[in-house]
Amino acid sequence: MEHFDVLIIGAGISGIGAAVHLQKRSPERTYAILEGRDSIGGTWDLFRYPGIRSDSDMYTLGYAFKPWEEAKAIADGPSILRYVKDTAKEHGVEEAVRFRHQAKAAAWSSAEARWTVQAERGDAKEPVSFTCNFLFVCGGYYSYAAGYTPDFPGIETFRGRVVHPQNWTEDIDYAGKRVVVIGSGATAVTLVPEMAKTAAHVTMLQRSPTYVVARPSEDAQANWLRRHFPATVAYALARWKRVLLQMYFFNLCRRKPAKAKGLILGGVRAYLGPDYDVDRHFTPRYNPWEQRLCLVPDADLFLALRGKKASVVTDQIERFTEKGIRLKSGEELEADLVVTATGLNLEVLAGLRLSVDGAPVDPAKTFNYKGLMYSGVPNLASSFGYTNASWTLKCDLTCEYVCRLLNHMRKNGYVQCTPRLEDPAMQAAPWVDFSSGYVQRTLHKFPKQGAKAPWRMPQNYARDILTLRYGRIDDGTLEFAGRRA
Fold it and tell me: Each residue's pLDDT tens digit in the chain (485 positions)?
């Protein structure tokens, strides 16, 4: 059985970043990465649907240690995948990845101060085991097995093809065909303008609207900085500009939601004109940032709507028919292809079954510690990004903290660290404050957060810098054990 100081779960953008941080900040630690699939990249290798791209700019979605040097700030999926793979290659991380190793369970032994991780290898699902002193889960937040598709009545009678974007394959042909995309989130607003380029027509069918914001795909200021300054300096300046703008707008949405709503809808009306029914199709029932905003680069969705290559229908599905979808209003949308951009199946800690000293761990009964560890669970951290900003901003800080923690333990001779919640009256709050359907369906399975630090996640990059980069490791909440405990 192989043993490592640190075992990383997942070789996506978080896992590759974690490996590089370990090499830079804790170089004496041995590590390996267990990756269930046969390639690096995670989300950016899994999703292959038309137009796949990020809805965050690459100056904040990119790693803090590797400047993004391409012209487009809102990058397409293949470019992001290349960036992640280039990072892995540059730092020699590829050699540490065990491909087609699906981690299934992890058991902690306090007597041995180590995790035993059980995995399945290859198509035969051969059982293999590893041990490690510290487990770092970087497997994202959703199941790779399949996306979420509701049980639509009559779907079996539809003569066309139905596909979820997570399961997109190269043989799907939509050129010259009538397409209905069900959904109004980031995936839907990406698919519609891209498919509209060659489809006969694309209809975005939504039960309710989402806030949609148009931004240029290129950041002119960032590109100017890159031409006049060293890459690292230009990248840092562009990154902080984006961070501050994100924080400003999020705070505006929370403190003055009516003003933020007016700004967003004013932008939509400017693109679609006075005759378009913005109130019906682009005005949600909730305030901005109660769900994630959708970004459309270069206003591509609005341009497709103006050009009549696409349309939006706001209604509810009664049932599928042979020809398409019948709505509760009585209208029938005829289609050759239906794309169900209806969300993801969220998954806690990459689906790992955890136990501590023989006792099963129910993540829902734990409290989150600083956004990365869990009450009563020793020597384990997970990488989970922001809901109101780019994913990698938080993941970079998480990796820095984990390295600081590992270094602190080695310096002081500790072999175990466990977050302990000593306040039995601590009020529990949901893992994230988000009203999106795909989140609410599974939120009861996730750990809780508390009413105050360090059990509360502030969703604030600046505050997390102070806490995770500069805050005390031995803060009175982490319980250490070892030779000098």
Answer: 899 999 999 999 999 999 999 999 999 999 999 999 999 999 999 999 999 999 899 999 999 999 999 999 999 999 999 999 999 999 999 999 999 999 999 999 999 999 999 999 999 999 999 999 999 999 988 999 889 999 999 999 999 999 999 999 999 999 999 999 999 999 999 999 999 999 999 999 999 999 999 999 999 999 999 999 999 999 999 999 999 999 999 999 999 999 999 999 999 999 999 999 999 999 999 999 888 899 999 999 999 999 999 999 999 999 999 999 999 999 999 999 999 999 999 999 999 999 999 999 999 999 999 999 999 999 999 999 888 888 999 999 999 999 999 999 999 999 999 999 998 888 988 888 776 777 788 888 899 999 898 999 888 999 999 999 999 999 999 999 986 44
Q: How many CB atoms lie within 10 A of CB 7?
A: 27
Does the global pTM surpass 0.85? yes
Omega cis (within 30) before 454: yes
* Neighbour count for residue 414 (Cβ, 10 Å): 22
Structure tokens belonging to residue 146: 């399949």
**Domains of the chain in sequence order:** 2-145+345-482 (3.50.50.60), 155-340 (3.50.50.60)
Joined tokens for residue 96: 């540490």
Q: Which residues contact 275 (CB under 8 A, 6 or more apart)?
A: none
The residues, ordered by sequence, that sit 6+ positions from 27 with a Cβ below 8 Å of its Cβ are none
CB 153 within 8 A of CB 320: yes
Residue for token pair 């939504």? 206
